Amino acid sequence: MPCEGVPVDNLSRNVRDPIQDADVASASRTFTLGGMTPQPHPAAGAAVKAADRAHVFHSWSAQELIDPLAVAGAEGSYFWDYEGNHYLDFTSGLVYTNIGYQHPKVVAAIQEQAATLSTFAPAFAIEARSEAARLIAERTPGDLDKIFFTNGGADAVEHAVRMARLHTGRPKVLSAYRSYHGGTQQAVNITGDPRRWANDSGTAGVVHFWAPFLYRSRFYAETEEQECARALEHLETTIAFEGPATIAAIVLETIPGTAGIMVPPPGYLAGVRELCDKYGIAFVLDEVMAGFGRTGEWFAADLFDVVPDLMTFAKGVNSGYVPLGGVAISGEIASTFGKRPYPGGLTYSGHPLACAAAVATINVMAEEGVVENAARLGAEVVQPALRELAERHACVGEVRGVGMFWALDLVKNKETREPLVPYNATGAANAPMAAFAAAAKAGGVWPFVNMNRTHIVPPCNVTEAELKEGLAALDAALSVADEHTE
Ligand SMILES: Cc1ncc(COP(=O)(O)O)c(C=O)c1O
Predict the structure, then answer these.
(1) Rounded CA gap, 394 and 275, in Å?
(2) Ligand 1 center to residue 182 CA distance, Å?
């Protein structure tokens, strides 16, 4: 419903009230990391909210059941609403603001690029694009030296799979049950014009398998070694029964993110690499969430010393200041498209604003030691604090993670490991997690909550003081979750 006295329809048509605009802007300016309270402006917030409710169709949501917070501004690890509340963002947005909000150097680089060359078609060589590709290729493992830019993570995965299919001449893709790779649907198979022909391999052909996850082992394993060996055996059996000559790619998140931050046991990814080599399958690592510092390395693959044939990235590449994703391509696969055209592309592939943001972000990360910060504070602050929380709280079943990439698996019962809420629970069945999240927010931390887990994924340049503040609020919220244990 439009709120009283505010021209909501005008808002939606960009005919805005200048006084209100000035107030909204000043609300953003008043916040500093020194802890000053943002200027509240509930009327402006109500207008933003009303226009949202009237016209914005949100991702993954039952539109009438959601209640999005109206956000007035953000800086560093914090954001704030129009009511004067500020929150420490333990989600990094959707795990992408690896350098926090409004980093002045990245904002300036975007402004400068906008003033110089705000857009240009993908077929030309553009300084920001060339430099972004060079900086990324310098950091990717092995010979992943060619960069195809996309608008985000899902299309990066689609293109990686398309490259693998065309390179191998095989149709199928194997991926893990516990994974998230994006929201699009191999859109080119729906396309009608001849650009579809070379890609018309059909949308079917994805086969799922179980990747290792000792805490909830599908293999009755009791040690990481058993889990690793049995998961590899299961994968090889899946390959054999599907027919190795039908499989183009195995796609895995290096460390599955949204599905629960399950760090693979030592040897697993190397074992998958071996299976791929043995059967001529392309190995695709999806680093959309785990890449660009999140794990305390530039790429999570570096933790395991493994080199895929294709690697997808997005999110942290420019902290999401402008949408950008891409595929890093091995020499061998790139050479498949040396004389033969690659049948795929995007109007905004390597958009100058997004690439300028990537150049500035990567330089900031290098200059400010952001990757090292994630590794150090992850090991020295987050890990011990979470382990200590697990000892004190009945609801914490397992702590897992690395760098600034951690999960608490919340359970009803530590012995049985029964999840605090059922798989994919909604409504009343999800009440314990909802109560946990509400308590965290009341304590000033915005938590990442997925099913029976909370993920601790703040910006990679978070400070020790901010971490301690957030962990204290989580401690209190876990006490609320404890009330739902047996
Ligand atoms: C591992 C992984 N791959 C792909 C995606 C999809 O990225 P996007 O939402 O930018 O399309 C995500 C998003 O969370 C992701 O975590």
Answers:
(1) 41
(2) 5
In the reported structure, the alpha carbon of residue 476 is separated from the centroid of ligand 1 by a whole-number distance in angstroms of 31
Q: How far apart, in whole angstroms, are the C-alpha atoms of residue 196 and residue 310?
A: 22
Q: What is the mean pLDDT of residues 216-220?
A: 97
Q: Which domains can be identified in the chain, with CATH numbers?
A: 42-99+370-482 (3.90.1150.10), 104-367 (3.40.640.10)
* CB-based pocket (< 6 A), ligand 1: 94, 152-154, 157, 180-183, 253, 257-258, 286, 288-289, 314, 325
Q: Which atom of ligand 1 is nearest to the CA of 258?
A: 16
Q: How far is the CA of 18 from the centre of ligand 1 (A)?
A: 37
Mean pLDDT lowest for which of 176-185, 231-240, 283-292?
Answer: 176-185
333 Cα: distance to centroid of ligand 1 (angstroms): 23
Cα 102 to chain centroid, rounded:
18
Return d(Cα 327, Cα 310) in angstroms, integer: 7
Per residue in 136-175, pLDDT (tens digit) is: 999 999 999 999 999 999 999 999 999 999 999 999 889 9
Ligand 1 atom nearest to CA at 314: 10
CA-nearest of 365, 482, 459 to 75 is 459
State the closest ligand 1 atom to the C-alpha of 95, by its place in the atom list counted from 1. Answer: 14
Inter-residue contact 132 to 159 (CB < 8 Å): no
pTM: 0.90
How much distance in Å is there from the Cα of 315 to the middle of ligand 1?
A: 8
Instruction: Kindly report the protein residue whose alpha carbon is nearest to atom 8 of ligand 1.
Output: 153
Mutate which of 150, 155, 181 for ligand 1 pocket (most atoms within 8 A of beta carbon)? 181
Question: Is the separation of the CB atoms in 232 and 271 below 8 Å?
Answer: yes
CA–centroid distance, 25 to ligand 1, in Å, is 31
Ligand 1 nearest atom to the CA of residue 154, by list position: 11
